[in-house]
Amino acid sequence: MLRDEFDFIDKIKPIKTNQKALIKGIGDDSAVFKSSSMFDELICMDTMVEGVHFTRQTMTPFMIGFKALAVNVSDIAAMGGIPTYYLVSIAVPKDWTEHDLKEIYEGMSQIGEQYSMDLIGGDTVSSKQGLIITVTVCGKVEEGTNLFRSNAKPGDLVFVVGELGASAAGLELLLKNGLSYTYSTHEKMLLKQHQLPEPQVEAGRILAESRENIALNDISDGLASETNEIAEASMVDLHLDFEKIPRSKYIKNYPLLDQKRWSLFGGEDYFLVGTMSKSTFDKINQTFDQKGIKLSVIGDVTVGSGEVYLTHNNKKEKLPKRGFNHFDKGEENGKL
Ligand code: ADP
Ligand code: MG
Known about the structure:
Blueprint (H helix, E strand, L loop, with lengths): L4 H8 L9 E3 L7 E2 L5 E11 L11 H17 L4 E11 L5 H17 L3 E9 L5 E11 L14 E5 L4 H12 L7 H11 L5 H9 L5 E4 L4 H12 L1 E6 L14 H11 L5 E5 L1 H14 L3 E9 L4 E5 L2 E4 L10 H4 L4
Parallel strand pairs: 4-5, 9-12
Antiparallel strand pairs: 1-2, 3-6, 4-6, 7-10, 7-11, 8-10, 9-11, 12-13
Bound molecules: adenosine-5'-diphosphate and magnesium ion.
């Protein structure tokens, strides 16, 4: 329970700032920062609700803070941007201590510092039920960059940055065993992908700096959902080859059906999916190689009406936006 909101704000107020353009951070009615010519401003927001997106059995307060900021930074990465500032609204129930809340801010600060971001404001209110944390992130990207999901063109390749499935596998372990179970080193890697996802800012920057026509999404709701969004927004069809979809090496000794479920519908890996021309791929492939970032071609784009198809064992099927057997990730993700 928070006794003194102002005392609390004082405690979480950053002692130093990173962004030169910041004029006024926490402490007035609104934050003030200089906008930059040459850049377009980016802004996004995501909310995490206790009991819907996390529970105290699956995430520590530090992890909740880290992830609440990471998922927003991931949205900036999916626009090819540089994250700059963040604001945090928290609705706090009685059973959360000030110590818990400070840990949430430490989690955010860890990733915030990694990207030289500044915490510039927020709001603190009470909640009658679970904890609700809403983070807004500002970012910037070179003027004219547009890594929009509506950019896919017939003839393009479909690509994935990173490897999929570990986060959903980690969540299943956590839901079964909880936080304090003794996990193997291998299982811990699955948990980490779920609890402390790394947004792909560096990959987004390479794609933005190429100045090429690229469609890009971060994989928050699962590959099936994200590819369908690109197909719909671009009014084209995407054809994916299951064998080419990069699966996390940490899920490879689980049954294939689980691997398929996790890598296609699991989501929350926060890697990237998109489309680009073959010549763009040939141009930037090497940069990804040099930086040690995995870039995989998983299919292609054709003229169509906004559908996604998946080929596995020579069988081609329509890939639904979400839903696979008994795993309705949509509901689990708090989506309406
Ligand atoms: P106001 O009444 O002007 O909304 P508040 O008392 O809500 O002011 O907030 C005071 C300052 O502290 C503002 O700069 C606000 O952005 C910041 N702030 C309030 N709550 C939080 C929070 N949970 N995290 C970060 N900054 C916060
Ligand atoms: Mg306020």
